[in-house]
Amino acid sequence: MNSLHKQWIGLGLLTLMLVKAWLIPLVCLDYELRKEYIAKALCVNRNKPITLCYGKCYLANKLAAANQQQERQAEQDYVTSLIYQVMDINSVKSFDYSPTTFLLPDTAQYPFQSSFIDRLLIGSIFRPPIV
């Protein structure tokens, strides 16, 4: 898939995420733009001229429905993530038991060097005169 297709897919997904995040403000904007139509045609209290609703009941119903939809979606996402966590086959770790073997050397090696070695070498060179 080339880079242009990936960019369009990314922009589409970004747009969907923004619409989801801005759902409640978009409902309010829709109400403000169509306030007169909602008050005349969609308002629950449109037949009662005494009330000063002006379609706020319709807005309240739409906001409640949007909140309920977001809560349902969040609950479904949470349940889905729990199911995927439990059912994820990639994270299953098998228990591999491999015994560790310790190899011991046949002879012990001690990195100790006597401080008398230097004296012995010097002593072989310098000795008392032979009579």
Overview of the molecule:
The chain is mainly alpha-helical. It contains five helices and no strands. The chain has helices at 3-21, 23-33, 35-42, 56-87, 117-125. Helix 2 runs antiparallel to helix 4 (56-87). The radius of gyration is 42 Å and the shape is rod-shaped. The N and C termini lie far apart (100 Å). The model has no long low-confidence stretch (mean pLDDT 76).
Give average pLDDT, whole number: 76
Summed up, the helix count is: 5
* Low-confidence residue ranges: none
CA-atom Rg in angstroms: 42 Å
Largest sheet: none
Helix and strand content put the structural class at: mainly alpha
Count of beta strands: 0
Set down the secondary structure blueprint.
Layout (H helix, E strand, L loop, with lengths): L2 H19 L1 H11 L1 H8 L13 H32 L29 H9 L6
Helix pairs in contact: 2-4
Kindly list the characteristics that best describe this protein.
single chain, 131 residues, mainly alpha, rod-shaped
Summarize the structure.
This protein has 131 residues and is mainly α. It has helices spanning 3-21, 23-33, 35-42, 56-87, 117-125. It starts with a helix and ends in a 6-residue tail after the last helix.
